Amino acid sequence: MPRPRSHDSIDATVASADGVPIRYHAEGRGEPALIFIHGWSCDRNHWAEQVTRFSADRQVITLDLAGHGESGRERQAWTVESLGADVRAVVLALDLRRVVLIGHSLGGPVAIEAAGRMPERVAAVIAVDALHDVERKTDPAQVQALVERWEKDFAGTAAKFVDFLLPPGCDPAIRERLRAQFASAPRDVALALLRAQFDYDLPAALERVHAPIRALNTTLPSNVEAGRRHAADFAIADLSAQQLGHFPMLTAPALFDQKLAETLRELGL
């Protein structure tokens, strides 16, 4: 039976396709529902501001992907595909008929994967600082060097990683929160997904999505033409000049919410 839809919040757990428990939060009512998908080694709490802002007039769902937050960690193979199945499991559990998938960082490819698994339910995909160049391939030697750097000094690399991704003058509390979160991530999951995101065939995944795809990119330059070679309706809002950093939902929530709302309006959603 579909769960009741009201502004009363729901915190529940559903089994993913492989049985791993996925924890999620739902709040508000109205379609299309917004599904917020966090990035690598993060959790659903990164979207707290957006839940408050957008649940006033529509249903908003956040979830912890497997291996993150309060979700289970007993998974045989850590892949972008398996994370996409986590998102689909939540959508089906809530019987959501029309959704917008909003994915940050690694959550961008996860949203693309999930959209390909339930095309009849997805009205649009919005990636946040992801899909900069969907055709870019990273040399395997560079990937190996990156993984080894994390293996050698996980906490130290986490601190440098966060510092690199945050904008100048960032609130120290946000910096410390992210440093602690990345340093405490389960290493086996984090390292496996670090490799998996480079193995994922993103161009092929885009071709399986028939809904509009948008990207709100806040750091790297964007290759719009690459995306359009694999998606019929693809566009990017390049916000890199505004120096918002990689976590705009945390560092500049009011501006991020405004840009997200504008994107939804432009899509007629």
Write up this protein.
The chain has one domain: Alpha/Beta hydrolase fold, catalytic domain (Rossmann fold), CATH 3.40.50.1820. Residues 1-6 have low confidence and may be disordered. The protein starts with 9 loop residues before the first strand and ends with a helix. The longest helix is centred in the N-terminal third of the chain and has 14 residues, at 80-93. The chain has helices at residues 48-54, 80-93, 107-117, 140-152, 154-165, 172-183, 187-199, 202-207, 224-228, 248-251, 253-266; strands at 10-15, 21-27, 33-37, 60-63, 99-104, 122-128, 213-217, 234-238. The chain has 269 residues and is an alpha/beta fold. The chain is built from 11 helices and 8 strands. The relative contact order is 0.14.
Main traits of this protein?
single chain, alpha/beta, globular, 8-stranded mixed sheet, Rossmann fold, 269 residues
Topology:
Elements: E1 10-15, E2 21-27, E3 33-37, H1 48-54, E4 60-63, H2 80-93, E5 99-104, H3 107-117, E6 122-128, H4 140-152, H5 154-165, H6 172-183, H7 187-199, H8 202-207, E7 213-217, H9 224-228, E8 234-238, H10 248-251, H11 253-266
Parallel strand pairs: 3-4, 3-5, 5-6, 6-7, 7-8
Antiparallel strand pairs: 1-2, 2-4
Summarize it.
Helix content is 41%, strand content 17%.
Number of strands: 8
Which oligomeric state applies?
A: single chain
What gyration radius follows from the Cα positions, in whole Å? Answer: 17 Å
User: What sequence of helices (H) and strands (E) makes up the elements?
Assistant: EEEHEHEHEHHHHHEHEHH
CATH homologous superfamily - what is it? Answer: Alpha/Beta hydrolase fold, catalytic domain
Order of strands in the sheet with most strands = 1-2-4-3-5-6-7-8
Main sheet record: 8 strands, mixed
The coarse silhouette is globular
Number of domains: 1
Number of helices: 11
Q: Remind me, CATH topology?
A: Rossmann fold
* Percentage of residues in DSSP E strands: 15-25%
Q: Structural class, please?
A: alpha/beta
Low-confidence stretches: 1-6
- Look at the structure and give the mean pLDDT: 94
The CATH level-2 architecture is identified as 3-Layer(aba) Sandwich
Distance between the termini: 26 Å
